[in-house]
Write a structure and sequence with these properties.
InterPro entries: Fmt (IPR005794), Formyl_trans_C (IPR005793), Formyl_transf_N (IPR002376), Formyl_transf_N_sf (IPR036477), Formyl_transferase-like_C_sf (IPR011034), GART_AS (IPR001555), Met-tRNA-FMT_C (IPR044135), Met-tRNA-FMT_N (IPR041711)
Order of helices and strands: EHEEEHEHEHEEHEEHEHEEEEEEH
Mean pLDDT: 96
EC number: 2.1.2.9
CATH topology of the largest domain: Rossmann fold
Distance between the termini: 56 Å
CATH superfamily of the largest domain: Formyl transferase, N-terminal domain
GO cellular component, one term: cytosol
Shape: elongated
CATH architecture of the largest domain: 3-Layer(aba) Sandwich
Family: Belongs to the Fmt family.
Number of strands: 17
Helix content: 25-40%
Largest sheet: 7 strands, mixed
Radius of gyration: 22 Å
Catalytic activity: L-methionyl-tRNA(fMet) + (6R)-10-formyltetrahydrofolate = N-formyl-L-methionyl-tRNA(fMet) + (6S)-5,6,7,8-tetrahydrofolate + H(+)
Low-confidence stretches: none
Structural class: alpha/beta
Number of helices: 8
Strand order of the largest sheet: 5-2-1-6-7-9-10
Length: about 300
Amino acid sequence: MRVAFAGTPEFAAEALRAILAAGYDVPLVLTQPDRPAGRGMQMVASPVKQLALQHGIPVDQPEKLRTEEQQATLRMVKADVIVVAAYGLILPQAVLDLPRFGCVNIHASLLPRWRGAAPIHRAIEAGDRETGITIMQMDAGLDTGDMLLRRALPIDPADTTATLHDKLAVMGGELIVEALPRIALCEMAPAPQPAAGVTYAAKITKAEAAIDFRQPAELLARRLRAFDPFPGGVATLNESAIKLWKGFAEPGSAAPGSIVAADAEGVLVGCGQGLLRLTELQKPGGKRLAAGDFLRGLPLQAGAAFALPQA
């Protein structure tokens, strides 16, 4: 079975590792073009491209896949199936129809919940108790295809997007390796996604980092977990943008944004409902620090207050 692969970030690279370890013939990898990254803005290959090159697999990096010219390399390899994981390009119907067994997507949610670009972030932000992986037969819609396999994963109360991503990446690799031989033998029974329970996981933007302490502490604590490692939380104190990385909701009441206490246990801040104890912060130009270490470099006193974003 010839398995072409399309993916870009580390989540996808984990799936490709699993496919290669299972011994599948991967004649081609599609990934996003190299992008500038880091302070020097040097061109950097995606994790999927780096892995493919390590294994001597040809790599194609089209900007789009709309034309026959852009699809030419993919057509030449005559793949039996294309496995897609966080690729970042929309596959037109002509590509979906190319392989004998079509295109199969590894999606990091229990569809139909959290279709779209940021299912891991949005599951944590929403307070979901579980998420998982869905192996889906792709169609022309946005994560609307029939489901082939689903496996649930509890969300730990301490999970961040970073930790949950790593768990789901491993699960995605396991599930696609489980699915491929059954696809080859036509043993899968595709199940349409239910119409009820559809949600959309919009792409995360930097603007969402702004923390508004008028919101409930429980919500803000979830957002900090959801936005770790990107974009983090940001709040302004004495005209300085302070990054907020970890926090826990506690009972109590104080004016939103006001600092109730600041010590090694954390910076306790009033919210619209409850208190938020910030335990990991970062000043401009500094590193992420536990609250005690942060306060040694930037002492804070009860009575000070974070600015509230303009409504």
